[in-house]
Each structure stands twice: as structure tokens, then as C-alpha cells.
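Example 3.2
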Amino acid sequence: GYVEDQYIADIIKSCKCMLFLSHYEGFGMPPIEALYFNKPVVVNDIPVFREIYENLATCIDCTGHNENIEMYTAKIIATINTKIIDSHTQIMQKFNNETSARKFLNLIQQL
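Structure, written as C-alpha cells:
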């Protein structure tokens, strides 16, 4: 259901892990929000998530080609038990105004 913006940070701060197993996604802000609060993140192994989250999130293949629930569970538990080392700083460096402006300028220059 819908959660008002004012409650999202508190919900994320109290979670043990962010599971974001979307099959189709344009960007995916909730995992970035979780990483901002140094929470472990598990995402579906789709190209957009591999590009955005690189080594910051655990990817699992939820496309239906691999129905091994035990493997999924083991990866999720391992992710929860992994100590997150300042993902906040990495996210802020990767997705800040200066970095975004440089990427946008590079795209314009390629035209």
C-alpha cells in the first residue's frame, strides 16, 4: 500500500534488509534510499540494477529460470548478515548533482 513520505525514512532505518525484486524497473529509488541508511540490499539480477548498484547490492536471478528457493534464501540471509561498510558515502558520491551534471554533459557532447 501507500506510505506517506514522512514515514519512509523511519521504516527503512528499522529494516534489516531491503528486498527489491522487481522484474521491470526504470531506476529503482528504494534500494538507493536503503543504501543511504547503510542497509543491505538484495535486487533482482536485471541489467538496470547491475548498472546502478554494481557491488553495492546482492543480485539474485528471480526471472523464473531458477526456482531454487533455498539458494535465494541463503543469499538473502548472507546479505543480512554482511556488515555494510559506509554505503551512504558511496551512494552520495555516485549520485550527486556534480556527477549527474557531468554525465548529462557527456551525453550532450556525444550528440
